[in-house]
Amino acid sequence: MKTLLVKNAEVLVTMDAGRREIARGGLYIEDNRIVAVGTGDTLPASADEVLDLTGHVVIPGLVNTHHHMYQSLTRAIPAAQDGELFNWLTNLYPVWANLTPEMIRVSTKTAMAELLLSGCTTSSDHLYIYPNGCKLDDSIEAAAEIGMRFHASRGSMSVGQSQGGLPPDRVVEREGDILKDTQRLIETYHDEGRYAMLRVVVAPCSPFSVSRDLMRESATMARHYGVSLHTHLAENVNDIAYSREKFGMTPAEYAQDLGWVGHDVWHAHCVQLDDAGIALFAKTGTGVAHCPCSNMRLASGIAPIRRMRDAGVPVGLGVDGSASNDAASMINEARQALLLQRVGFGPSAMTARDALEIATVGGARVLGRDDIGVLAAGMAADFVAFDTRGVGMAGGLHDPVAALVFCNPGQAAYSVVNGRVVVREGRLTTLDLPSLVTRHNALARQLAEASR
Ligand SMILES: [Zn+2]
């Protein structure tokens, strides 16, 4: 057994039921789980490894509930800089059609490196395009290599343009193949145990790229295996119009009709979720992944997060893919969530602590986990530390916890995942970042050139 002692944190934010914040706080960890939380005098005096986090704020590792990591190869693509969702997708599908397995592996590691350096220890990823032999296994391999806790979502698209869908026919799959591969992935990789580092999620891309049958069969399969369901829903007004025209229902009504509500389901965006939809999600425990930067980038609107939370809807935070949020920083996403909610609904619509709650324990709930997002005995040893002594937080130490969100704390000094120090003194310990970025940039160039 390996032990790790964390001590002297300026403040340790537990996110436990009492939302305790402990000055001069620390943690005692055995292998991959937290054994004790408290001030130094209440913890063992020594351990195999001791981290003195004087001057740092320690929080639970942030939980990212929505991403498309392959999109890190297509940031700031000129043709897709200024469109709304449907136009943006139409410009990018032909580029993504040239993805290769190496591109999936390298971009996933790059996206995870960026997340880990921004204080995130658990991420989901929604991979829904599988050209040229790409597989979800490529993402799974990347997560294991870098050491991130991972919810790998088997996305899919089956309704191409010739069938009235949005994606070109050459990037869609046959529904039988999708279901077979999804079953293989669950049986091969899904770990339902406590502290699982890898879970598989069933995740058709969106109501405008798969059929009603595939949505229904996906729900049946997910419930058979006890895995979660994830998709995009009610992202913007065109999305609503498509739903009304094709299905004669709002997106929330369509989700209910398909069996896509419940504690085991979370939907990305829900910017245009109406009051009846909010009530339905609250009643059924259906989760929402809020992605403020992406919603602003694509001018989708302002998701009514305050109303959702007041109604009891589980809400987590997501950076979304890097083609619609070209800066995938989880701590910055919490800041943007706070700012955007205030633009829409006034200055009391979200506090700094609300934003941190959504980004930690909120995300954990959305992913269906009760072993992460909180620093308490018996929880997974996932925590991050930000150094408060840099210029970005200078003058903000009246309330260092709020300052994490209001100010710019920079990169995480430490990210610890399942008891393993994956970021130490601001550097990744599990791979060589400069060579990864060099390869990522070469592949990004190759991908853009292939689609000219
Ligand atoms: Zn998305």
Automatic annotation (TrEMBL):
It holds the Pfam family Amidohydro_1. The keyword Disulfide bond does not apply. Residues 57-422 form the Amidohydrolase-related domain. It comes from the Bacteria. GO terms for molecular function: 8-oxoguanine deaminase activity. Its EC number is 3.5.4.32. Gene3D superfamilies: Metal-dependent hydrolases, Urease, subunit C, domain 1. Signal peptide: none annotated. Keywords: Hydrolase. It is an enzyme of class 3 (hydrolase). Belongs to the metallo-dependent hydrolases superfamily. ATZ/TRZ family. This is 8-oxoguanine deaminase. The lineage of its organism: Bacteria, Pseudomonadati, Pseudomonadota, Betaproteobacteria, Burkholderiales.
